Amino acid sequence: MKAISIIMLAFSLLLSNTAMATSDGEKSNIDVIEQAKANILKAVSVHIDVLNKFKSCVAMARVGPDLGACKKQKKAALKALRDKVKLDRASQAGSKKKEAK
Questions:
Q1: Whole-angstrom Cα distance, residue 48 to residue 56?
Q2: What are phi and psi of 28, to 5 degrees?
């Protein structure tokens, strides 16, 4: 019974995605997806840069306090990244609300 439910759920999701892709806004839907992919890849690249800096900092550390400094730098960089993402999301949500009105 669970298998049938899962198959039906997957089938309904497939149909809903197909219906979304073939609607009149197919071109704009593709543009939205491409923009989302670009944003995600940019965020991942920034995160990888932070981790690479952390890796090199840890590799150069000589004593325990050096490791602590590396951790603090990484934590601060990731917090700044999260704060920037939150601001970007808030500004996008605000612009979407204005468009809806």
A1: 12
A2: -70, -35
Residue 14, both tokens: 């497939």
Structure tokens at 52: 């690479």
User: Could you tell me the pTM of the whole model?
Assistant: 0.61
Residue 92 is predicted with a pLDDT of: 81
Distance CA(49)–CA(80), nearest Å, equals 13
Both structure tokens of 69: 């400094």
Q: How many distinct structural domains can be found in the chain?
A: 1
Range of the domain at 58: 25-100
pLDDT-derived band at 5 (thresholds 50, 70, 90) equals: low
Residue 85 resides in a domain: yes
70 in a structural domain: yes
Distance (Å, rounded) from C-alpha 35 to C-alpha 45?
15
Task: Tell me whether residue 18 is in a domain.
Answer: no
